[in-house]
Every structure is written in C-alpha cells, then in structure tokens.
Specification:
The protein has 10 helices and 10 strands. It has 292 residues and is of the alpha/beta class. An 8-stranded parallel β-sheet has the order 3-4-5-6-7-8-9-10. A two-stranded antiparallel sheet has the order 1-2. Helix 1 packs across helix 2. The longest helix is centred in the middle third of the chain and has 17 residues. The chain starts with 8 loop residues before the first strand and ends in a 21-residue tail after the last helix.
Length: 292
C-alpha cells in the first residue's frame, strides 16, 4: 500500500483533512483568465486552491472561489484557500499587515492556510532566525484569533524549521519543490516525523520532467500520462502535490491518481533521478535573495 490515504491528509489535531491534490495559481495573470481557471478547477473537483500575495492575482482568486461556489453549489467551508507572506514582509507587524491585505484582496472572511513563503536566510538578513520567529509569532496570533484555520511554512529546510518546532503552535505544513529529480526525501521525512503535512510545488519540474525517457516509459507501462506518473510519485512519498493547468481535461486527469500504484522498484528508480537534479528550479532557500 502507498503512504497516502485517498481521503487526504489530516492536519494534526485541527480536524481538518486536506485533499490529495491541490490547484496552483502561480503565473496565472490577474483577470478573467485567473477567475475562470480557479472556478473551473473547483468545478472539476479541486478543493485546495494555492495562492500567494507574490502571484499578484488574489482579487481574481477570490472571485474564482465565489463563482465556483455558485456554480457547484458549495459552501465556503468546502474550499481550502491558501496564501503566503513574501520575505520582504517578514516580521511581526509586516506579516500582520500583509495578511489583512490578502484577506481584503481575496474578499474572503478568513483563509484556510497561511504560509511563510520563504524563510529569512543569512544571505538576506543578519538576524534571519529572529525574523522567522517574530514572523511566526504573528502567524500564531492570526491562527489563535480564527482569521486562519491552519498555519505553516514554505521552502523551509531543517535548520530553518528547528527554531519554530517548540512554538506553542508549530508549523502544520511545509510546502517544498518536489518532483522526480528533486524529491527532497530526507527533508520530507523530517517534516513527517514532526507532524507536518508536506505539499509539493512544481510537481512536473517546470515541465522539464514530463519529457524524460524514464517518465515517458513509466507512463506507457502504467497506461497513464507523464503528469499522472509525477503526481503519483508525490502521493507515494506522502506529499500533497499542487499542479497547475488551464486545460480542463488535464485538470481532471491530474485528480485521477488513485487507480494505480507505482511499484517499489519504479519508485526507487524515480528517486535515483535526484542525482541529475532533473527539473530543479535552482531556488535554494539558503542562497536566494528576495525582492518585491
């Protein structure tokens, strides 16, 4: 059996269960295209919408959520909406201000999940660890006051996480770049050991993975698309992948990953692609310097 249950991922003691696959909104421009894509994704069956202030499309994401609620006769509680605070807004007060701007931009009464988009790091901040802790204090306050249903981080490595693990409310989620060629398996295991759900961004390695000979051979073997092989790979790592597509057929196909399972041998072969760093974005959270 795989490490994932079809129902999704239980979020600690919150009682919240995350769906197995989410829908990403990165690089979908603000406007009708984004509204349509978000609404269509929800109508197709997606229940987790992953956004961020940095994507600069939060007005449209909120509109898409409301449109889908009407079209599919859903309640707000049926849809799990995520946003993230950008590194230039880290720190207690800046995080508070950024959160309420996001809430206003989306037009929603609350968010389901709020993440620190990237950790403060030594490349950008002399007091990086203190800044992450200060930011986390704001996150905990937002959670405690009910403005957000769950809190977490994104792109945090083990040494970034350690300062937050003993907080009153430790991170519930860590969202990482995960795909064949960049599994980050040791970090995924560390997160799981500390009770975090791991989400995976760029599950297709920015498209570079889909044309790989091994992936295409496995797609033929299992009679699935290369995208479905990548998403099933994430699922069997115990990771919630967040694909993005504006094509309705591909949206639907990306949800259908429960009717087959990759063999242990094939999983090992896919994990070995890490040696090539296939499809890796090159965005190292220790080295990257962020700007608005």
């Amino acid at each position: 059996m795989s490490t994932i249950e079809q129902a999704g991922f239980s979020l600690g003691s919150t009682g919240i269960v995350l769906p197995q696959v989410g829908f990403g909104t990165w690089a979908i421009p603000e406007g009708k295209e984004c509204v349509r894509a978000v609404a269509q994704a929800i109508v197709c069956g997606y229940r987790l919408i992953d956004g961020a202030a940095f994507y600069k499309n939060e007005h449209s994401v909120g509109q898409g959520v409301r449109l889908a609620m009407q079209k599919a006769n859903l309640n707000r509680k049926d849809i799990f909406v995520t946003s993230k605070v950008w590194p230039t807004n880290l720190g207690y007060q800046k995080t508070m201000d950024a959160f309420f701007k996001t809430l206003n931009d989306t037009g929603l009464d609350y968010l389901d999940l709020y993440l620190i988009h990237w950790p403060a790091n030594a490349a950008s901040f002399e007091n990086w660890e203190e800044l992450n802790v200060d930011t986390w204090r704001a996150m905990q306050e937002l959670y405690g006051e009910g403005y957000v249903q769950a809190i977490g981080v994104s792109n945090f490595k083990e040494h970034h996480l350690r300062a937050l693990l003993n907080a009153d409310v430790p991170p519930m989620v860590n969202q990482l770049e995960i795909h064949p060629g960049h599994s980050q398996k040791a970090l995924v295991d560390f997160c799981h050991d500390h009770g975090m759900v791991v989400e995976g961004w760029s599950p297709f390695g920015r498209g570079a993975v889909l044309d790989n000979e091994l992936i295409t051979a496995l797609a033929q073997k299992y009679e699935r698309s290369p995208a479905q092989i990548c998403l099933r790979f994430a699922a069997q790592l115990g990771v919630l992948p967040i694909p993005k597509s504006s094509n309705t057929e591909r949206m639907r196909a990306n949800l259908k990953i429960n009717d087959f399972e990759l063999s242990t041998e094939d999983m090992e072969t896919l994990l070995a692609l890490d040696e090539q760093q296939l499809g890796y974005s090159g965005e190292d959270s220790d080295l990257i310097v962020h700007h608005d």
